[in-house]
Each structure stands twice: as structure tokens, then as C-alpha cells.
Design goal:
By secondary structure, the chain is α/β, with parallel strands linked by helices. The protein has a single domain, classed as 3-Layer(aba) Sandwich (Rossmann fold), CATH 3.40.50.1820. It is built from ten helices and ten strands. The strands form two sheets. It has an eight-stranded mixed β-sheet with strand order 1-2-4-3-5-6-9-10, sandwiched between helices. The chain has a two-stranded antiparallel sheet with strand order 7-8. α5 packs across α8. The longest helix is centred in the middle third of the chain and has 21 residues.
Amino acid sequence: MSVRRPVSFYSEGSRIAADLFLPADFEPGQKRPGIVLCHGFTGVRQLMLPEYAQTFAEAGYASLIFDYRGFGDSEGSKWRLLPLEQVDDIRNAITWLEAQPEVDPQRLGLWGTSYGGAHAPYVAAIDERVKAAVGQVGFEDGVTFLLGVRSDAERAELYRQLAEDRRARVLKGQGDVIDPFERALRNEHSREFMTKALQAHPHMRCTLSWQTWEKTLEYKPIEIVHRIAPRGLLLIAARDDNVCPLHGYQRLYDAAGEPKKLVVLPITHYQIYAGQWFQESANQAVTWFNRFLGQEGK
């Protein structure tokens, strides 16, 4: 098992709620490698992340989970979800983790899933403190993520709505909001997963501005992923993913430099979080972190 400790830090002036997981055999004076875990779209830290953080801690890593600004127990503008602001939250989480006496600041890793599976490569590309990154079931480009599952007519309508909302924000000072779960629930896999998630964590239900969609369309990890090299990048994809299709991670992998690895599991997007596929994805991540972060300080 591991030891879980509630902690907090600040990101651009907002208090961020977080939990630090330490190995059960941690002894005072040791410095262990650290891993920051990044959640997915509208996720809260109590959903899925503790299981991964505990697995990483049992493997010897100090592991940090947190709620993005505006979500879960963190302060900040309620439900404001802009990818580059979440990138800042992640980098501030790294700064907090490297300052802890239990952590070796020269051996820091980054892990992210789904929307966070795009953030992890992006942050690793711009922040050289990250010595190894793991992304799972994420995407390479916001255009592909949002438009890849839409018809031509639906794409045109989305752009029309975005332009209309942008004018409203400029001319009237406020745009409209949308229910992301209604849109997500149109997908059968998402509907099943989110129904259960909302029952367990009802505070996850939120509304988002159209600006979330606008800024996601502009978000392009693929354009900078080559900057991670020579640090290591592992991507774990789901073969039958219809939320973040496999071809997106294939493109991201192709654009990255060495060392890199792409693992494709024979599953759908949400199957990665349970049973054997949770264990497989977590083990793949641990093996990757062991390769680049090591356990010499254990």
C-alpha cells in the first residue's frame, strides 16, 4: 500500500486541492522520483487517479494528483476549462512537487489520460524538468479531437456557433454555456461511463463556455511534441477508441523524436480504467518511468 496525504498549492493565485501519495516503505531523508498525474476532460482527482497514483507509489514513486482550477475542490473561476490554463496548472504542480523534501527534483515524470493524455506530451515538450512522459487514450490535435467524429454539416454548425458566441462575448460581455455531458452522452461508451461517474461524483456535473471548444480547436500538441526528445515519451492507445481515435496518437507518435514507444491495447476508450487493462496500462507506465527515472534513490 501507499500513504496518502492531502496537500495544496497555488496556481496563478488560486488554491489547488491535491493529494500526495508516498511509498509505504518511504523513510525520512530519502528522495524518491516524482510523478504528476493529469486528469481528463472535466475530471476530478477522486475519479480513477487515486488507483494510478497508488500503483505508482507502490512502485517507489512520490505521486501527485490534483483538481484543475475551477473543478473539484480547487479554487478558480468555476468550470473555466481552457487547455493552456490547465497546462499552467500542471506546470505549477510540477513546481510544488519538486520543492518537496521527499522528492528528487532531477527525476520528475508526467502522466496524463484522455484530455490529460494531450496535456502530458504538451507540457513535456515545453518544460524540460519532465524527464519522462506517459500519455494514454489522448489526442494530438484539438481539431481532430472535436471534428473527427462530426459530419461536414455538424462541423459547419460548430464553427457557426463558435463565431456567434465570440461576437456575444465581445459585444455583450458574456457568451453562452453548454452542458458537456449531454454532448458526451451521445456517444454510447461515454454515456455508460459518465452515467456511473456522475452517480459516484455528482459534483462533476458542470457547464462549459463555448470558449472551451474554441480554445481546444486551437490546441495542437502535435506541433511541439518533437521537442520532448531526447527525453522519453510513451503513448498508450486504445484500438477501438471512438472518443480519442487511435490515428491521433499514431500521428503524435510519428511526429515525436526518440526515445518513444506506442502501445496499442485491444479495447475502447474507457476500458483502460478497469480490470486487466487498468493493470496493463499502469504497468506499462511504471516500466517506462523506471527506464528514465530509475529507483537509485530508493
